[in-house]
Every structure is written in C-alpha cells, then in structure tokens.
Amino acid sequence: MTSPAPKTTPASGSAPIPLNFSAPRRGMPPKHFADLDPSEVVSALAEVGLPKFRANQIARQYYSRFNGDPATMTDLPEAQRAVVAEALFPPLMTPLRNVEADDGETRKTLWRLHDGTLLESVLMRYPNRATLCISSQAGCGMACPFCATGQGGLDRNLSVAEMVEQVRNAAAAMERGEVDGESGRLSNIVFMGMGEPLANYKRVLATLRKITAPAPEGFGISQRSVTVSTVGLAPAIRKLADERMSVRLAVSLHTPDDELRDTLVPVNNRWPVAEVLDAARYYADVSGRRVSIEYALIRDVNDHAWRADLLGKKLHRALGSKVHVNVIPLNPTPGSQWDASPRPVQDEFVRRVNEQGVPCTVRDTKGQEIAAACGQLATEA
C-alpha cells in the first residue's frame, strides 16, 4: 500500500568520530518570561513599574491557558500589555511550517529561532496520550554516524524558554484540536529531538522543573510522563539521579560491545558500556524508575544473534528487572549506507533478548515519511 503524501501547511567500522563539546557559535536569546523564576518575574515587572500581583496573572495565562502573547492577555490592562511584552516576551521562535503524517496524528514543526537558527519538534497523538518530542540543542555534537542530526553537528544549546516554548505551543495546538482534528491534552514529553539533553544539563533541568511544576509555576505534567534520552554521559546520568526526580531515563546504547560502540556512539570512547550501565543502574536505584535502553537495529551492523545474547546478559547483570529494551528499526537518512534489519532478523533479535530475562519490544515509529522519526531531524528550510 502506498502511504499518502505528507501534508505540509504554513505554521500557525571506521575511526572514532570526534565529538563537539565546543561553545555555541551563536549568542543565546534575550531573557524571556519562561526563563525566570517567580521572584525574577516580580523583579522584572517592578523595573517597569508594574505591581507584584501581575506576575501571577501572567503565569496563569502562560502555563494554564498556554497563552504567550501579552496582547491577548485580557486580564491585563490594555495599556500595560505592550509594556509586559517588551519586558518579558521578546520574540524567540517563529514557526516556518508544519508537516503532517500518519493521517494527521503526527505533526513536525520547523522553527526559526531569534538568531536564524533552525529547530524541529514533533507532536504525536496516540489513542490514550499525546507526546511531544522536543529538542534541547540546535543540532547535536555527539556525531553518531547513523543519525542525521548528529551528522549536521552542533549549532548551540537552547535556552530554557526555547524548550518551554516548544511545550507551550504543542499544548496550545492540542487544546485547539490542530492534531487529528479534535481537542486534547498534551500528556507526555520526551527529550528525544535534536541534541544531547545532558550536554545542556543546567537548562534541561530547569526546563524539566517548569514542565512538571503545578500551575501557575509550570504546566503540571507528571514527572513520570517525561523521558530524558542520552547517548550515555555517565557523570551527568548520576547527577540527574541525585536531583531525586522521577522522570524516565532512556539510554541510546545501540550495541553491547565497546569495539562497535566506539564507532556507532563516539562518546563511548569516554564512557564505555560498563560505565554507562553502572550509571544507569544508579539512576534506576535512586529514582525507582525502570531504565529504557534504545537500540537502533541496523542491518548486518549490530543485529547479530550473538549481540542480542550479549545485550540481554549485560543488561540482566547490570540492571536486573529495572530495564526495558526498545528496538528501533533504523530510520532512513539522506546519504546513509545503512538500512533497517529484515523483519525475521529483528524478530529473532527481540526473541533472544527476551530469552535472557530482559523485556524487549519494537517501538511503534511515527513520522518516518516526513523525516520526523528517531535520528531523522535535520532542519531543512
């Protein structure tokens, strides 16, 4: 069966690859309401002569009504709206286009940031939930060779407000019924878009707190409905565990052996498999959450039966019952010499991991035909 054409609408085994942890090439955006804590908002309002109680009104508009435009905040006096806009709401990001797939259940948005940087986020609607895949960096410095984002390199870190704004816009789109035609609620957030979240640690942590704080200080999304993905920055995994949050950790492992992982996930040269799994076990123990292991299955590269056995054994030994493997059939990217494993190979891989006592399933992939699936985000204007 031929898939319908995506709908585009105007928006409302080689040497290890060097990693890019260099400083951002472009400046961070001006401070925005979503960057500030409540006391900082009060101070900013005082500087322009506005009373303290306006901070609560603005916060309720932003986090409860998903309204980021002071011109339409009707509980503010009309004369003060422009003042609030100038003080707290500098233009940060403009939607360039939306592309839909999966009969309207998936929407990828291309954003232009204040400095011209491009960014993508993906909103996916399921029968019982709506999930937003957000980006934490513009580009990515991890250089995984099978990932389009990693091959494009790192542009810069995103600010807290640039991440929070992705969430606010998605929540507003769900409420307006823009995804799959009926009103709904944004329920889940996954930091699986562009970038390595733990390489932008401080801002990602602040974003997590704003996403999960109850209104009017945040969107009130359950921590248990938020997932942070990492390629395996072991010290940052431990640091995140010590925050005592209950967000889920997802580790992009992709192979159980260091020899291949040094190439597939170059950060493995710093933190090898055993160290990553030890950090993941610490996270599971501290948070009480089961860790997800992400495994992009690549034909004749990491799909061998012995690797499935080794993966199951290592995970069972390191994490016991506190782990689940998500097998992801490799999503095609432009110019890649690799493709997904055949279905029988995939099924055998899953069977063998399960046989080691480790739950293993194949992820339901959305948005592949619009380059919105894992590893495909690449921001073409």
Distance between the termini: 29 Å
**Biggest sheet, in brief?**
11 strands, mixed
Q: Helicity range of the residues?
A: 25-40%
Poorly predicted runs are 1-5, 12-25, 375-379
Q: Tell me what the CATH architecture of the domain at 132-154 and 187-367 is.
A: Alpha-Beta Barrel
The level-1 CATH class of the domain at 132-154 and 187-367: Alpha Beta
Number of helices in the DSSP assignment: 11
Q: What gyration radius follows from the Cα positions, in whole Å? A: 21 Å
Strand content: 15-25%
Instruction: Indicate the structural class.
Output: alpha/beta
**E-strand count:** 13
Adjacency order of strands in the biggest sheet:
1-2-3-4-5-8-9-10-11-12-13
What integer is the average pLDDT?
A: 89
Query: What is the CATH superfamily of the domain at 132-154 and 187-367?
Result: Aldolase class I
Write a structural description.
The chain has about 375 residues and is an alpha/beta fold. Among the domains are: about 35-90, DNA polymerase, domain 1 (Orthogonal Bundle), CATH 1.10.150; about 130-155 and about 185-365, Aldolase class I (TIM Barrel), CATH 3.20.20.70. About 35% of the residues lie in helices and about 20% in strands. The protein has an 11-stranded mixed beta sheet with strand order 1-2-3-4-5-8-9-10-11-12-13. It has a two-stranded antiparallel ribbon with strand order 6-7. Helix 7 packs parallel to helix 9 (about 275-285). The model is unreliable at about 1-5, about 10-25 and about 375-380 (pLDDT under 50). One of its GO terms (cellular component) is cytoplasm.
